[in-house]
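REQUEST FORM: STRUCTURE PREDICTION
Request ID: SP-0412
Submitted by: Lab K.M.
Chain count: 1
Length (residues): 413
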Amino acid sequence: MAQQEGKCLHCNHPLTKTFTDLGTSPLCEEFVKPENQNSSQKIYPLHVYVCDECLLVQVHEYVSPEEIYEDYFYFSSYSDSWLKHASDYVDKMMEEYGIGSDHFVVEIASNDGYLLQYFKEKGVPVLGVEPSENVARAAIEKDIPTEKKFFGYDTSKELVSDYKPADLILGNNVLAHVPDINDFVSGLKVMLSEKGFMTFEFPHLMQLVENNQFDTIYHEHFSYFSLLVVDRIFARHGLKLFHVEELKSHGGSIRIYICHKENDDRPVRDSVTNMLRMEEDKGYTDIDFYTSFDEQVKRTKRELLKLFIELKENGKTIAGYGAPGKGNTLLNYCGIGKDFLDYTVDRNPAKHGMFLPGSLVPIYPPDKIRETQPDYVFILPWNLKKEIMNQISYIREWGGKFIIPIPEPEILD
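STATUS: Completed
RESULT:
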């Protein structure tokens, strides 16, 4: 059952408490074609609530997932650091958890096969489940078996019938994209073999709050999870969270490990109890903790605009790097368009010649930066700042500098 207007995604409790209100924004992956730049765009409220019953932070489902993923522009393989992260994960699962050729691995939201390709190279049977047509096609072209489906309870029954239960299910940055979290998790329980386990990675709400990562909020993300909340959600469906790891990816993520509640081979580790206790100590069981976040977001908007106004008043040129979803939230909330940002660049050729949703900033290949020699490069995917600063370190040849927006606006040489 999809979310009802004004009701919690998880417990169906009425939503009345604001986490932060980011105004209105178009879909962050709805890039504008040149012939449509003078046409109107659909915009939707980006008002984030927190449920005062179960404490799930969430955005209303204003747009159906089918519409969001009909023609998707995010390809995981365009980030070198993310590919290394995927390869390291495969090595870990095989070396530490014994995943091998006699196991069946399923990735939910498998994108372009960026991760499953490494399991396949090592002879492990795999299956990707990916709802976006163009992205799934890219995976199939790499010979990664992929089902173009939205995952949920009904889909899981079909997959178990057509294939078999999975020994390892993984999902990277997918939980936030699920509008019906209970249907999704009930499907996972069906899909998982008796002694199998699952891992899910997602940005940690604690990092979002402490590092002011409000730009990671957009319509494609319906939920924002603390460990406290995600533990309750899986427990509700007879699944046990037995281990958690902190990761540096996406500005600070966690990887959770889950198995069937009845699986005594995997007891709950101290990592889980320690993080749950840490969240409680920091206030994540107190509704007032959540409602204080909005003022912090407003302050960052004012500081960023102040910086941009000062630079432009002094005749400086500013170009962007990247066209990520988080960048579109940031630009639209702060009101930064072509009056501040001359253009942005991206490694994904599918975005070249397009315009960012809302702000209509044009997107070019990365070589545009060397060609125009801007005074400042505004790094929109700030979670990849080290990788990007290395890639375009040549801007220092003409005295160029970098601007990082999060957690607070900062200029780096």
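NOTES: The domain at 303-412 is CATH 3.40.50.720 (Rossmann fold).
Reviewed by: T.R.
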